[in-house]
Write a structure and sequence with these properties.
The protein has 452 residues and is an alpha/beta fold. The protein contains 19 helices and 14 strands.
């Protein structure tokens, strides 16, 4: 039997025709006429794919979508509508849908969408195997790849691992650049040799050269014994140069020579020594801008930038947030000896909506704190930090400098809704009249923008 597919649509004829087409293709098909029936069904029978109409009586498809995503992690959800607009399609995708189909559609369109989803699932499983293989090497901060951007990054990790070429890993602080570097090393033929990491911005300029390349005894004041240096310590393995943009320009010249000649000369020694290392560098800076300002050598940049892997910030891969939260919850529940069953829907929605300036490192700290603070068997909204419960820029609000018209429109909507609720002392029916929208639309927007 093929994949299990759930069709959620209040149109009996469409539901029945889709059932026949999909059953003929070997799929195991289930059907529901509304959201309540769909949620009850998935509690009993996990499905791999959901075809869901947007406009339905009761809870509509957009409201059902996040609930299905939470109950069916890793599933493929395709939204359908005869009244769709481009904005609606974009919104569905941003909320976690895999694809959007505008009615009326041909059966071939549905089948093509399902075939593409199956290929994506194969790739996801392949990357899941990769993550399991490198789990021991990358430590407790996992590589989560439910979002397209992270799946692409993991594909690059897999390709980069096969070659000795230098790799430049870019991304904001806390996104997990060192984790990606360790994953490359763990998948490479050097996995049984050393992985040596150094933060170029954490060591004074006067000591960094000695740390990297070593020194002879008496090479400078205080050098009472010889030191091999990290490149020689990592011989046969991998050197990870974190925050390479912090390296002083004078030392960049020497690093370039090491990369070109594959040899190092410790301070105070007359001869160079051959060294076989794979170099992976990382930066949160814009190195192209640093080159323009004279802060980074262009020739070194091109030498490092043979393969580039960009790790996107967490706010751009919201699909990964529930998986990260679950991972850290399981980890800290075990290490702190405080078993918890999970995270409430309300708390998880706020975690997904938060902008995470500290990225993966920040969500790790937040979950650890929440496990400690939890009073029940699940992490509740009240047990999250205040800036997440009531963020400065809630969903639908525009941050300073944001020039997106779409987000600006949502910011205005959110502001007007707050004013209307204040003017009516929280009476939502009266507020809806002031706003000239339906009561149901108001309830939906209150939930969407996180207005309390």
């Amino acid at each position: 039997m093929g994949q299990r597919i759930l069709i959620v649509d209040d149109d009996d004829s469409l539901r029945e025709s889709l059932e026949m087409v999909l059953a003929a293709e070997g799929y195991e098909v289930f059907a529901a006429c509304d959201a309540d029936e769909a949620l009850a069904l998935v509690e009993r029978t996990p499905v791999e794919v959901v075809l869901c109409d947007i406009r339905m009586p009761g809870l509509d498809g957009m409201e059902l979508l996040p609930q299905l995503s939470r109950r069916l992690p890793g599933s493929t959800i395709v939204m359908m509508s005869a009244f769709g607009t481009e904005d609606m399609a974009v919104e569905a995708l941003s909320r976690g849908a895999y694809d959007y189909l505008a009615k009326p559609f041909q059966p071939s369109e549905v089948l093509l969408t399902l075939r593409k989803a199956e290929e994506r699932e194969k790739l996801r499983r392949s990357n899941e195997m990769l993550r399991r293989d490198v789990a021991r090497s990358v430590g407790e901060r996992p590589i989560v790849a439910a979002s397209g951007a992270m799946i692409e990054a993991l594909e690059m990790v897999e390709r980069a691992a096969e070659f000795k070429a230098t790799v430049l890993v870019t991304g904001e602080s806390g996104t997990g650049k060192e984790v990606m570097a360790r994953a490359i090393h763990a998948q490479s033929g050097r996995r049984n040799d050393p992985f040596v990491a150094i933060n170029c911005g954490a060591i004074p300029d006067t000591l960094l050269e000695s740390e990297l390349f070593g020194h002879a005894r008496g090479a400078f004041t205080g050098a009472d014994r010889a030191q091999r240096g990290l490149f020689l310590e990592a011989d046969g393995g991998t050197v990870f140069l974190d925050e390479i943009g912090e390296m002083p320009v004078a030392l960049q010249v020497k690093l370039l020579r090491v990369l070109q000649e594959e040899e190092v000369r410790p301070l105070g020694e007359a001869k160079s020594r051959q060294v076989d290392v794979r170099v992976i560098a990382a930066t949160s800076r814009d190195l192209e801008a640093e080159i323009a300002s004279g802060g980074f050598r262009e020739d070194l940049f091109y030498r490092l930038n043979v393969l580039r892997i960009h790790v996107p910030p967490l706010r751009e891969r919201r699909k990964d947030i529930p998986l990260l939260a679950d991972h850290f919850l399981a980890h800290f529940s075990a290490t702190l000896g405080k078993p918890l069953a999970g995270i409430t829907d309300e708390a998880l929605e706020r975690l997904v909506a938060f902008h995470w300036p500290g990225n993966v490192r920040e969500i790790e700290n937040v979950i650890e704190r929440a496990v400690i603070m939890a009073r029940g068997d699940r992490i509740a909204l009240s047990e999250l930090p205040g800036n997440i419960i009531a963020p400065e820029f809630a969903p639908g609000e525009a941050a300073p400098g944001d020039l997106s018209l779409r987000r600006a429109r949502k910011a205005v909507e959110a502001d007007l809704i707050r004013r209307a609720l204040q003017a009516t002392d929280g009476n939502r029916t009266h507020a809806a009249r002031l706003l000239e929208i339906s009561h149901r639309s108001l309830l939906y927007k209150i939930k969407e923008y996180g207005i309390r």
